[in-house]
Amino acid sequence: MKYFGKNTTLQEITEKYPETIPVFASNGFPQMKDDEQRAKFAGSITLETALTLKQIDMDTFVKLIVEAIEHDDSSIDVTLAKSGKRNKDGEADALNVVGLLPCPVRIPLLEKFNEFVNNCDVPINHELKAASMGLEWVEENIKGLSDPEDLPDLFISAGFDMFFDEEMIGKFKKQGVFADTTSLDTFNSLFDGLNLKDPRGHYALIGVVPAVFLINKDELNGRDVPRTWEDIMKPEFEKRVSLPVGDFDLFNGILLNIYKKYGEEGVTKLGRSLLQSMHPSQMVKSNRLKTNKPIVTIMPYFFTKVVKEGGPMIAVWPEDGAIISPIFMLAKKEKIEKLQQVVDFFASVEVGKVLSHSGLFPSVHPDLDNRIPPENKFMWLGWDYIYSNDISGLIHKCETLFNKAIG
After folding, report:
1. Regions in the chain scoring below 50 on pLDDT
2. Tens-digit pLDDT profile for residues 161-219
3. Which residue among 49, 70, 91 closes a domain?
4. Structural domains of the chain, count
5. β-pairing, 241-243 with 296-300?
6. Is 362 within 8 Å of 210 (Cβ atoms)?
7. Opening angle at CA 353, ends 200 and 307, nearest 5
8. Residue 275 placed within a domain
9. Most buried of 52, 110, 201, 265 (most Cβ within 10 A)?
């Protein structure tokens, strides 16, 4: 490598090339933007180790770092591709595409999208952040807007939070600002019977993030392996479950589905089960903890594939269905003529392959093999439930119940 090696520490890279800090911060390492946090760990972890922990492809990530180093303007956000193209009248006429992408697939998706942008006949500005940037980034860019003109032309992200919150995107949906213009009339057969397609034609779905169980067999001590969501709420699993509380998209999807199926009592029991909150990359190594080892960790399906074979950790797909957090895409109806090719890109089988095969986020594209056994079920909140409830209010209610149960 020209500027650093795979065994170079993150501290060495960022000290020599401070322009790379935004690259790390927006690609799964948000703590790198904080001087104090960066000083605590960056000197003790190499580039190779950091990327392995995050399951990020070395070659692709290095390209982004080198791009930041070699760019004339070191302050540019490397995920923001501003085009110099003009319309026939000589005026700037770019589309604005914004989103939060699942961390394990963000870089390969960004690479494909940049190729698409470079060959597109419409200028496109895009800012596609890592999902780890979370609601804080969304609030800075979306919350408080009142004019649809100020919204991005296309928005893509997983979860329920921002899409149904009346202070964020929910109010624009009610105004009929968005339209699902994907050509996917039918979804992948893996989702047969779930009715994932929005019957009102506002939200487009391109994939899902499933939540499954990771069981530490060494900690069962005579307990049966939990096979359903109801199992992990039993008294014998109190304070023995790890949940992805910090992964807002998936965690809130879990809370909503538990509330729908088991009511307030179910959310309370789930809270009582909580031993601790972990990032999925920590969860897969939880058996190495000296104390407070969880029996069950609930995590995105993707992270179960980095578990060492033959060890005490086994993945269990819930028999009553892996709870799914949808990956939504919202496109402005008034911009569809120019925006359609961008919609088609994100709804394509090529993007579906990246989601499904690289990230284990099953794609809804009907022509794709998601490589998941057909007997594996999913648990989906359902559009009837979504449209008949205040989802943002329910999330707040569930969080209150959950936190009270933790006590």
Report:
1. 72-92, 277-290
2. 778 887 778 888 888 999 999 999 899 999 999 999 999 999 999 999 999 999 999 99
3. 70
4. 2
5. parallel
6. yes
7. 110
8. yes
9. 110
